[in-house]
């Protein structure tokens, strides 16, 4: 059985927790070590028992405290997994990491941590070599896909058939277009390698729900260009347009910015 918790999710910092009850993994460490430690404690987990850190990409809201975590936990021997491009991109910001702890991964090449099989897959984002992750154990599949500018066939193939999918629902297009961000930043967010908007997240979730995926979490919400109620309403409308009902046919949750979520079990 997987245990999953969004410790922190949003454009101001991200860290997610995945466990099969024996192996404990952090995905990203974009908030302080103290905050991660407190969040883990709140769900009954010990920071010192983390077995590995997986990094999706080098942007600071995902990687700023990877080095801190690696130096705090298990006497600097905690394994850190990232693509070659991500290692290069965050090399100047994460500080010293024990060379023996550095693990280089490639998209579509699976690896094992304990009894969990992990498959990284490419995501369309403006980073050096960003990935999402699928976790597989005892016939269950948990998938994390945030920081994605658009959906494509390869990405869809990787996220379908999940027992739990955390998908980005970053912004509302109208809020973004009418908001305070400068034009260049708005263009970046809306680009093919930016962030997924509520409506596209909703369309994706509706299609996957029709294929049989039952449990979804939307996350990585923008603080300036989105609201949790708006994201849920927009995604929910797409689901209902597909003839499905939340609570009857599927579960839909939102990962709140700066707030540790409940623990999800699959």
Task: Describe what this molecule looks like in 3D.
By secondary structure, the protein is α/β, with parallel strands linked by helices. The protein has one domain (3-265): 4-Layer Sandwich (Metallo-beta-lactamase, Chain A). Helix content is 29%, strand content 24%. The protein is built from nine helices and 14 strands. It has helices at residues 33-42, 60-63, 66-72, 84-90, 153-159, 173-178, 183-190, 198-211, 228-241; strands at 3-8, 15-19, 24-27, 52-54, 80-83, 102-105, 111-113, 116-122, 131-137, 140-145, 164-168, 215-219, 251-254, 264-265. The protein has a seven-stranded mixed beta sheet. Strands 7-8-9-10-11-12-13 form a seven-stranded mixed beta sheet. The chain is globular, with a radius of gyration of 17 Å.
């Amino acid at each position: 059985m997987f245990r999953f918790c969004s410790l922190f999710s949003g454009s101001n910092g991200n860290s997610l927790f995945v466990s099969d009850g024996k192996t404990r993994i952090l995905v990203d460490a974009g908030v302080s070590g103290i905050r991660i430690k407190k969040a883990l404690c709140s769900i009954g987990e010990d920071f010192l028992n983390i077995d590995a850190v997986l990094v999706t990409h080098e942007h600071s809201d995902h990687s700023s405290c990877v080095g801190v975590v690696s130096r705090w936990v298990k006497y600097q021997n905690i394994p850190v997994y990232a693509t070659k491009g991500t290692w290069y991109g965050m090399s100047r910001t994460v500080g010293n990491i024990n060379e023996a702890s550095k693990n280089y991964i490639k998209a579509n090449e699976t690896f094992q941590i304990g009894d969990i099989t992990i498959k990284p897959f490419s995501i369309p984002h403006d980073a050096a070599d960003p990935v999402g992750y699928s976790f597989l154990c005892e016939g269950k599949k948990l998938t994390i896909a945030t920081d994605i500018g658009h959906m494509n066939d390869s990405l869809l193939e990787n996220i379908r058939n999940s027992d739990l999918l955390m998908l980005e629902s970053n912004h509302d297009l109208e809020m973004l277009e009418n908001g305070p961000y400068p034009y260049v930043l708005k263009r970046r967010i809306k680009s093919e390698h930016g962030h997924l908007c509520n409506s596209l997240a909703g369309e994706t979730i509706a299609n996957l729900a029709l294929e049989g995926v039952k449990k979804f979490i939307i996350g990585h919400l923008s603080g300036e260009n989105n609201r949790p109620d708006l994201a849920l309403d927009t995604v929910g409308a797409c689901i209902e347009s597909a003839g499905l009902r939340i609570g009857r046919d599927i579960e839909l949750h939102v990962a709140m910015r700066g707030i540790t979520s409940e623990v999800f079990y699959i």
